[in-house]
Amino acid sequence: MTEFTPLLRSLYRGPRGAAHGVADPYRDEVPGLDVPGGARRRRRNLEAYLEHLGKPRLVLLGEAIGYRGGRFSGIAFTSERQLAGDGPERLAWTAGRFAASSANPRLWLEPSGTVVWGALGGEPRGVLLWNAFPWHPYGPRGPLSNRAPERILLEENLHVLERLLAATAGARIAAVGRTASAALARLGVEAPALRHPAHGGAALFRAQLAALRAPG
After folding, report:
1. DSSP letter at 44?
2. Are 117 and 77 in contact (CB under 8 A)?
């Protein structure tokens, strides 16, 4: 995990700039939405995930954390029901290592996370999930909504993406969606682009990811 230490330090400091309407899952707790100690649980979830993952061979870079996913799980493209639920959505490798952090008794489940983990066969297998803007920007409807991070906000926080690239040197990286592609381009990084699984893109995302991971 030592290779991820600079990355996590930058992440846990929170976003730079005028980050209005942005929740930091690793520091913020909202009464009625988070259980006490929820931010600490999310930090532990992320660190346990990185330990289980091992050395990444592929990085899937999305846009930003969503309220049904990383906002309460601490992990990109992952919901707390996949980590700590008691239903069929729970990933087999998570048993006993992860904790829910929301006050939602049913726990949150993110459709995009379901598609991504299904395409991965339910196992990380050296694939690291992350976001170009690794916090939760929410919209005018409040903390239980999502919005795309503004360009200036994304650019002011590219230092975290730079640390991700340093921590995963040698791994392939793929951009899931246009925001991720734009962030990598700002750093001069060329990467294959995958369709984001949301809004009808699930089938194409699965096909593109399968082709990307195919031998040879």
Report:
1. H
2. yes
CATH number of 2-213: 3.40.470.10
> How many helices (H) and strands (E) in the chain?
9, 6
How far apart CA 88 and CA 108 sit, in angstroms, is 14
pTM: 0.97
Q: What is the mean pLDDT of the chain?
A: 96
CB-CB contact of 24 with 43 (8 Å): no
Does the structure show a pLDDT above 80 at 216?
A: no
Q: What pLDDT, in 10s, does the model give residues 127-163? A: 999 999 999 999 999 999 999 999 999 999 999 999 9
What is the pLDDT averaged over residues 7-29? 96
Instruction: Give the whole-angstrom CA distance, residue 187 versus residue 129.
Output: 19
DSSP assignment string, 123-163: S-TTEEEEEEE-SEE--TT-SS---PPPHHHHHHTHHHHHH
